[in-house]
Structures are given as structure tokens and as C-alpha cells.
Amino acid sequence: MTALPLLEADSIEITTLVDNQIDALLGGDEEVRRKPWGPRVHNPFVDAPEVATTLHAEHGFSALVTLVQGGERRRLLFDAGVSPTGLIENMDRMGLDAKEIEALVLSHGHFDHTGGIAGLVERLGRPGMPMIVHPAAYTQRRSAPPGATPTPLPPPSRSALEGAGFDLIETADPSLIYEDGILITGEVPRATPFENGFPFFQRQTADGWEPEPHLMDDQALIANVKGKGLVVLTGCGHSGIVNIVERARALTGVDRVHAVLGGFHLNGAFFEPVLGPTVDAFREMAPNVIVPGHCTGYRAQMAIAEAFPEAYVQNAVGTTFVL
Fold first, then answer.
1. Which residue ranges make up each domain of the chain?
2. Quick one: 206 exposed, middle or buried, by C-beta within 10 A (0-12, 13-18, 19+)?
């Protein structure tokens, strides 16, 4: 395929605003900057004038992406977490201004990536910003393992998003934004023999609930950093993290992978057979930075950390990766 004209960025900064864990004791450096503490407040039950606050962790994901290119800094929000207030409270405690966000990208339609839009809208009023979203993100879904009560996976409300003033850009195709400095993958082809989705996912149709192992609205964000290579950011990675990275390579014509960050969705017994092939694929990619978060799962995190001790970085809310 013909490569899309993704321009080289001077750098990209990715700040984790929402993720499943917070750890104030993690170390950092110039490329991995930790900021787990919020402002100091008075607490009458603590014997000190003031005591520090921390950030909130929750089962969801959101990242603030800052593209640095030609002396300009452009900011977008990639996903929004699960609770109405978690995203905006963490931004406040980190001293980040929501008014600097220029666009919003949804990785897919699950509620743990969209719930914080409520707090963002409450803060900004009518945002009037573009939102890139796959048309299938509004699908009603659930997880229905055999013998268990189905778990609803509700989507965002299209009418509410329109009513709030978002300019919805609904497309399954790749999107170049910020003067061709950032690429959104659009729909990701399922090519590997081992990334087969999740058999218990279902979608609601006019005929009732039907199997939907592949969430085709799952998409990722790509930048190409000068002298380093591709940076790939995922939400849940329902497309399969290897499929996503290979899609990034194919779309850009750039083979070198510098960093892969976000949710890899390898949690639970069903995905354990996928861990080995995924680690093998990462060996071929040879990224300098691997940051599995959110829904990656403990066993997958440990497998990746053991296989790539120099590249693996533990994620936590309040971490900024300067890539």
C-alpha cells in the first residue's frame, strides 16, 4: 500500500491521566517523568499544617498527547477514563488546563474510555472541538461468558456528544491531523493467527444479541519521532497489539518502532496462550520503550518485563513519557 505522509515530529509527550494504578514511589528520569502528587491541603486528622494529595486511579484509560513540531505544541485527549470526574480532577491536581485540549480521539466505544467526557464538558461548556470516532463506537455491547450474568459495555451517546457541541468526525479510515504530524489508524485489519479477539463479546442488533469477537472500531494513535521511529498509543488494543503495530508500519512505511504504550488487553486465562507469540513479535519489533497499562493484565506485564527489562516501563497515573 502507498504510505501516508506522516511527518516527523521533534518529539511527543504522552501523559497518563487515567489508568488502573497510581504509585507515588515509582522512579523516573528525563524521559519518564513521574508526578503522582497533587496540591497540599489541610486535614484535621493529620498532625501537620498540610498534607499532600495524590491522583486517582480507576479502571479506565486516558492520555494527554502533546505533539512538538516546528516549535509548536499541539494537544489532544486520547480517551477519557470511566468516571465523570476522574479525568478532570487528575488534570486539576497535575496543574493541566483542559482549555488547551484541541481535539479528542476515542480509541473505541467502551464506557471505561468515554465516561470522563462528562467532566470535560462540565468544565469547558460547549467544547466546540473535533472528536475522531469510528462509526461502530456507538454499538450497544456486552460481555457474556457462558454460565455468567452478562456485563453491559455501554457506548457513548451520539446525541449527547452532538448536543455538547463536539464536531464528530466519524470514519473507519485513517486520519492525519495536526498538519500531518499525528495519524489515527482507523480500522485495524486482523492479520496475525493468534490475535483472535474475545469470544464472549456480543453486540445488539435488530435480531437480538450476536457474537462480536472483534471490535472493529478499535483504533490507535501514531507519531513518527525524528531519529527514533514510530510511537504507538493504544486504548485497549482490542485489535491485537501486534496487529496495531503492523498497521502503523504499513500505513507509514516506517519499519522502526520506538515506543508502544497503552492497553494491550491480554488479561485473563483466555489470553494466556497469546502471551508467547506477542512477546516473540515484540522481539522482532525491538521497541526501545514498552509501556503496557490498563487492561494488559498482571501476567502479561510480568512476561513483557522479564523479556524486555531495558524497554519495559511500569505505567501509573501522573506519568509523562517524553519520546
1. 8-322
2. exposed
